[in-house]
Amino acid sequence: NVHVPAAKAFLEAGIHVICDKPLATSLAEAKKLAALVEKAGKVFVLTHNYTAYPMIRQAREMVAKGMLGDIRIVQSEYPQDWLTED
After folding, report:
1. Distance, CA of 2 to CA of 53 (rounded, Å)
2. I want to staple 11 with a disulfide (CB 3.0 to 4.6 A). Which of 34, 38, 40, 68 is the partner?
């Protein structure tokens, strides 16, 4: 994972960052990067590819309107066949 070192270098150079996933390899590393973003005062965006999908937008709307009641747990799967290939 090279996202943290690259993001850090750009932030320290005063450049806004758009970062793909995974953000970091650990929660501690992500928190350090978040602190650097705060210190740098730059825009930091983490991409979430599926936010524009119609199904995701519909789910968001249903939750916002209370159509699903109180949400207590969310389970999500993202099966990709290439992850199981040798």
Report:
1. 28
2. 40
User: pLDDT (tens digit, 9 = 90+) per residue, 9-41?
Assistant: 999 999 999 998 888 989 999 999 999 999 999
pLDDT tens-digit readout, 36-73: 999 999 999 998 777 778 988 999 999 999 999 999 99
Domains in the chain, number: 1
- The pTM for the full model equals 0.59
* Both tokens assigned to 20: 């793909």
Nearest 10 degrees: Cα torsion 15, 52, 20, 10: 0
Rounded CA gap, 32 and 23, in Å?
11
The distance between the two most distant Cα atoms of the chain, rounded to a whole number of Å, is 46
> What whole-number distance in Å separates Cα of residue 85 and Cα of residue 60?
33
The total number of residues written for the chain in this structure: 86
* Domain that includes residue 51, residue range: 3-83
